[in-house]
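Hey, resending since the last one bounced:
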Amino acid sequence: MSDEVLFKSSADALRFAFNYSHQQYDRPLMNRMMGGQGGSGKGLSGLDGAAQAGMIRRELSALSNLYRAVLVARYAPRSFPCTCGRSCCAGSSINLEWREAVNAVASYATDMVPGGHGRFRPRRELVFRIYGSGRTLAAIAQDCGVSEQTASEHNSRIVIWLRRGREARDDRPEVKSIEVLSDEAAQRVLMQAGICRA
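The structure tokens again:
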């Protein structure tokens, strides 16, 4: 095996690991025997790809549950194509790993962000909104029985905690967002394992 680092960044490695499809197939034996034909891939198909995705995920097991959940919510696909033809899925099925990760992030947001006690359902919907559900604040507020103002206030707190963080001020230090902290932690473990450069 060469000492070549396969991924330029930890984000590339995470996208690969969380998007790796179990339905990928290695090139046919005849194509592999012909050598150079078949593209400039790095051997990450079939069992090689599955092994690499597994190694990346194994390294992430050193991270906290919150950081792992945030990484899955950010980098894993929300759904997979489905060709069953039934009307229930409309051509795609939810990625259960992604859904559970977003639920976990919402649970942490309820516990860690001020004002969340007893507000799991609105916070869950707001975290799903942040990760792409497309729902409006007004729709979330109505479904959860809170005012749009309340939904907006909770959304602002969650966005600061999860995505933006807080800049340093005269009397207080910078506070990094949970997404930044998760990315930094993933970068550290993946670089130490020789999986990525940065």
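The first strand starts at residue 79 and ends at 81.

Sorry for the duplicate.
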